[in-house]
UniProtKB/TrEMBL annotation:
<dbReference type="GO" id="GO:0008233">
    <property type="term" value="F:peptidase activity"/>
</dbReference>
<keyword id="KW-0812">Transmembrane</keyword>
<feature type="transmembrane region" description="Helical">
    <location>
        <begin position="170"/>
        <end position="187"/>
    </location>
</feature>
<protein>
    <submittedName>
        <fullName>Membrane protease YdiL (CAAX protease family)</fullName>
    </submittedName>
</protein>
<feature type="transmembrane region" description="Helical">
    <location>
        <begin position="97"/>
        <end position="118"/>
    </location>
</feature>
<feature type="transmembrane region" description="Helical">
    <location>
        <begin position="193"/>
        <end position="213"/>
    </location>
</feature>
<keyword id="KW-0472">Membrane</keyword>
<feature type="transmembrane region" description="Helical">
    <location>
        <begin position="52"/>
        <end position="76"/>
    </location>
</feature>
<feature type="transmembrane region" description="Helical">
    <location>
        <begin position="12"/>
        <end position="32"/>
    </location>
</feature>
<feature type="transmembrane region" description="Helical">
    <location>
        <begin position="130"/>
        <end position="149"/>
    </location>
</feature>
<feature type="domain" description="CAAX prenyl protease 2/Lysostaphin resistance protein A-like">
    <location>
        <begin position="133"/>
        <end position="231"/>
    </location>
</feature>
<keyword id="KW-1133">Transmembrane helix</keyword>
<dbReference type="InterPro" id="IPR003675">
    <property type="entry name" value="Rce1/LyrA-like_dom"/>
</dbReference>
<dbReference type="Pfam" id="PF02517">
    <property type="entry name" value="Rce1-like"/>
</dbReference>
<keyword id="KW-0378">Hydrolase</keyword>
<keyword id="KW-0645">Protease</keyword>
<feature type="transmembrane region" description="Helical">
    <location>
        <begin position="220"/>
        <end position="237"/>
    </location>
</feature>
Length: 308
């Protein structure tokens, strides 16, 4: 029912196109630019000029602002409530967001702790109170907006729009999952580890797509994504990652793409899907992931009007 939220007579394909086309154009430009420059060196030079925290703001700020712009576009131009872009439920379920956030935050903390105690020589304790807590404030303000933009764009706006056009759940699931992974192709991690890391990025896209379609809303994906980026940025950084921060630990090891890249996709994500499916009693997997979209949904969904 989540995709059908946009399937009303108010859907305007012309107004829908500028956001995805503009974003795709920026992705292509970003990728082409990354092929002609050393992304890692560019980030280091920026940090040397303005400092870690301000560089973080400049790198994350645009996507944080883009989240607000996207919500404005949906609310004002499409006249679609933010609630309907977020969930098929009568109201946004903050309990789902928080459960997903704290579950993945806990798992992330455990995994980083195990890695540290298993090979302490690979890490440097990077904690400095003033820079860390300054970064903490910036991260709490900006990272949830940055991750929310990615979720609202890929699993919300793009998934709903493609679903309306194709009358299918499978096509938006496949397209948005792959595009989410491809969006990260210009990250410095790709240059260091090779394209094998795209398995992780695209696999994460499929995982978040399943969460959205099976749970009929973005809440679980929003919570997971925020925890992944926020807790990760606070716990650990490295000289070769996209996020270089005043984190607690700094990874000194030489990056390599091995089983640790595949592990989340083939083991951890399926376990999380099992946990979520049991807790929220998911059913009808085939229909929710590959089923068809009804022709028009206005009468069914416009019964709930919210000025969110």
């Amino acid at each position: 029912m989540f995709i059908e939220q946009m399937n009303t007579k108010k859907f305007n394909f012309i107004l829908y196109l500028p956001i995805p086309l503009g974003f795709m154009f920026l992705m292509i430009v970003n990728y082409i630019s990354s092929q002609g420059m050393d992304t890692e060196k560019v980030i280091h030079d920026l940090i040397n000029q303005i400092g870690v925290n301000l560089a973080f703001v400049l790198l994350v700020g645009p996507l944080s602002f883009a989240c607000l712009f996207l919500l404005f576009w949906v609310k004002v131009l499409h006249q679609q409530s933010i609630r309907s872009l977020t969930t098929s439920r009568p109201r946004v379920d903050w309990g789902r967001i928080l459960f997903s956030f704290f579950l993945w935050a806990f798992i992330t903390i455990v995994m980083v702790s195990l890695a540290y105690f298993a090979n302490p020589e690979n890490f440097h304790v990077n904690f400095q109170p003033v820079p860390f807590f300054t970064f903490l404030i910036l991260a709490v303000l900006l990272i949830p907006l940055q991750t929310s933009f990615e979720e609202y764009f890929f699993r919300g706006y793009l998934m709903q729009g493609i679903g309306v056009v194709t009358k299918s759940r499978l096509w938006p699931f496949l397209i948005t999952s792959v595009l989410f992974g491809v969006m990260h192709i210009a990250n410095p991690e790709v240059g260091k580890m090779g394209y094998i890391i795209m398995v992780y990025y695209i696999g994460t896209g499929f995982f978040l797509g399943i969460l959205t379609l099976m749970d009929e809303g973005l809440e679980l994906a929003l919570g997971f994504h925020a925890a992944n980026n926020l807790i990760g940025a606070l716990l650990i950084t490295s000289d070769w990652s996209a996020f270089q921060t005043h984190s607690i630990l700094k990874d000194l090891s030489e990056p390599s793409a091995g089983f640790d890249v595949i592990l989340p996709v083939v083991i951890i994500f399926p376990i999380l899907l099992f946990i979520f499916s049991k807790k929220y009693k998911w059913s009808g997997w085939k229909e929710k992931l590959t089923g068809q979209i009804p022709e028009n949904n206005e009468n069914q969904f416009n019964k709930i009007e919210e000025n969110v």
